[in-house]
Design goal:
- α1 runs antiparallel to α2.
- The chain contains 2 helices and no strands.
- The longest helix is centred in the C-terminal third of the chain and has 28 residues, at 37-64.
- Helix content is 71%, strand content 0%.
- It is flat, with a radius of gyration of 15 Å.
- By secondary structure, it is an all-alpha fold.
Amino acid sequence: MRAATPPRGTDRLPYFSYAMFAGFALTALVGPMMNNAGLYWIAIELTTLVSTLLVALRAAKGASG
């Protein structure tokens, strides 16, 4: 089964944004489930990185239109 591809000439940013939001939700949910302090720290840092990208994408989208 192939992934849905956007029509030619359209922006791929919404697809990437949805994928990043899913990644943020995953890291935010997995973080508290960690039983090791080191893995918990990594999960929290991943949540921070993903949320930073989401904010940057939102700011870029708002600035352009």
